Every structure is written in C-alpha cells, then in structure tokens.
C-alpha cells in the first residue's frame, strides 16, 4: 500500500472574509474570519485568533571531528509553570529579518549566541510549531563547526540575553532525547535527525562543501 499523501484542498479553497488586527507590539495578534470546505462536503465558517510572531531559524551546531554538538541554555518565560526549571537546553536560534536567508540568520545568531563561526550550512527541514494559533515558520538547519574553543556565556545585553554554551558528546545528546531531558521541539527534531544521519556527517569536515 502506498504511503504517499497530498492534501485534498489548498489555500485557494479558503475564503478569507475578515482579518482584524487585535494587537501590534513585538508580536502581533489578529482575528481571522474565514470559511473552508469540509471533507464530506459543504463548508464551515470559523473565527481564529492568530499570533504572528515572525519566522525563525534554528541551527544544530555539529563538530564531526570531535563528534560533539553545541547547545545553549537560557531562561524561557513560556516554561514557567510547565517545568521544574524554566532554563532550557536549546539550539542556537534567531528571528528572520526582512530579506534574510536561513543561512544568514544561522551565521549571525551562532556568533551572537555561541561565539562560533560556521562552516557549511545545510537544511534539515521546515515546520510550523503550533499552526492552530500561530503562523510562525521555522527553518531547521545543521552547520558544521569546530567546537574546540566553544564555551562561556554569550548573548546581547540589549536584548536581555544571558546564554550559556554547552559542548556535549553526540552520544550524550542523543541520550538526552531518549531520557526526556529536552523540552525544546527544534532540539529534539534536530538531534533525532543527527542520530539518523550520524555516520554520513562524521565523514565530513568543516571545510567541506555540501
């Protein structure tokens, strides 16, 4: 049996009646009134509040020579009341500015958040982390690095960043996922991808072209 899938409908099947701005700050909130077809015929009319928080890039930093990954630890207000500690272990990440490519964001943020210059950068996947109420798109990429000098605390004071760098053996990072020690979706996805592609990436070098 084929496992191929494609959606029955596309964006042309959606009728947008109203896009009402509700809040415009660092993030934006708006209310959509729209209708779309039902799978069994007819249409349904709905209202949805959508958070527009901009798009982002998350980058998995991997050193194929040392077989280590670099993760960053920082405070996340959204984790308050959800976990014992709101300091999360994550990938380097940043918001996309107008006209920026995913690779440009990855290179900029890796210097700002981890003090690391990147070698080759290549895509892992792209996804919507919470499409029921947020239109954020995340480009997930991997970059080859030299982790020998990595460490310390980084981030921009102007943005209230206080970011601690961790260099972790790849095997230990995979164990963090298996042992449910990570609560960041991008890091979980990226490390699972790295475990699947581990042998291939270990043959690469920071100077390699992909």
TrEMBL record:
Q: What class of enzyme is it?
A: hydrolase
Could you tell me which residue ranges the Nudix hydrolase domain spans?
Answer: 52-190
Which keywords are on file for this protein?
Hydrolase, Magnesium, Metal-binding
Write the Enzyme Commission number(s) for this entry. 3.6.1.13
Q: Which InterPro entries match?
A: NDP_pyrophosphatase, NUDIX_hydrolase-like_dom_sf, NUDIX_hydrolase_CS, NUDIX_hydrolase_dom
What catalytic activity is recorded? ADP-D-ribose + H2O = D-ribose 5-phosphate + AMP + 2 H(+)
Matches recorded under Pfam families = NUDIX (PF00293)
Q: Which cofactor does it need?
A: Mg(2+)
- State the family named in the UniProt similarity comment for this chain: Belongs to the Nudix hydrolase family. NudF subfamily.
- What is the annotated role of this protein in its UniProt record? Acts on ADP-mannose and ADP-glucose as well as ADP-ribose. Prevents glycogen biosynthesis. The reaction catalyzed by this enzyme is a limiting step of the gluconeogenic process.
Q: What is this protein called?
A: ADP-ribose pyrophosphatase
Organism expressing this protein natively: Marinobacterium sediminicola
